[in-house]
Amino acid sequence: MSNITIKILRLENCRGATLTTKLVRRLASELGIPIVLHEVLVTSLDQARELRVFGSPTVQINGRDIDPAVRALQNFGLG
Q: What CATH number is attached to the domain comprising 35?
């Protein structure tokens, strides 16, 4: 099984990012799924648009948001 790339995109004062990171690591470990985890601090609106940030934290697996409901949206932002 090849590694799955997971990105956790967060704003500077995001309270949920640490818990989300721990949860993702724990679930991957429990399921035996090899992952490469990147935590990304989003600091500008341009970066939020480029990375497709809808909220903080945003979790993407292999470049796709985990929430299918937001994948087609275009209202990226910082808050």
A: 3.40.30.10
Can you give the pTM of this predicted structure? 0.85
Kindly report, residue by residue over 6-65, the tens digit of the pLDDT.
999 999 999 999 999 999 999 999 999 999 999 999 999 899 888 988 889 999 999 899
| Domain assignment present for 53 | yes
Number of domains in the chain: 1
DSSP assignment letter at 42: -
Range 48-51, long-range pairs (CB < 8 A, 24+ positions): 48/76, 48/77, 48/78, 49/76, 51/7, 51/9, 51/76
